[in-house]
Amino acid sequence: MNNILFFLTPKAMCAYLYEDYTIRQALEKMEVAGYAALPILSRDGEYRGTLTEGDVLWAMKNMCDMSLKQAEKLRIMEITRRRDNIAVPVNTSMHDLVERAKIQNFVPVVDDKNTFIGIVPRSSIIKYCEWQLYTED
Asked: Which of 41, 84, 114, 132 is the least crowded, having the fewest Cβ atoms under 10 Å away?
């Protein structure tokens, strides 16, 4: 299996944030989606980074004095993010995808214009490896 599209969750099925969202909007989207980290996109679809619950927590402590009113005024791109999930091009090798997935719980996938097309969750790769193990017998 050399095509990462086999593992891709397309953008239409992904939860994500727009870079102009406020901290409060991001919190609400994360709560509804049920994920601890979400990709950040520009309004034209370009991948901009990853926001985690931890990033929001530290921002609330350091920038908002734990006030949801202040969280309505600050944009997520004003938050210091601990680490962005590195995106891979759609034609990346399986080896590079697995290397990324070892340190990221999801791998954003972009086209040649850096437009976000979806994610490859680490769990998809693990399920495939598990399936390979059991079908070898």
From this structure: 132
Q: How many domains does the chain have?
A: 1
Place of tokens 């997935």: 101
Secondary structure (3-state) at 115: strand
* Cα dihedral 98→104→105→106 (10° resolution): -70
Q: Which residues pair with 121 in a beta bridge?
A: 106
Within 10 angstroms of residue 38's Cβ, the number of other Cβ atoms is 23
The whole-number pLDDT of residue 111 equals 95
The pLDDT value given to residue 94:
87
* Average confidence (pLDDT) over 94-119: 94
Q: Which domain holds residue 50?
A: 4-135
- Could you tell me which residues come within 8 angstroms of residue 89 by beta carbon, excluding any fewer than 6 positions away? 109, 110, 111, 112
Task: Read off the pLDDT of each residue in 67-83 and give the average, rounded to a whole number.
Answer: 88
Sequence-distant contacts of 65-73: CB under 8 A, at least 24 apart: 68/24, 71/22, 71/23, 71/24, 71/27, 72/22, 72/23, 72/24, 73/22
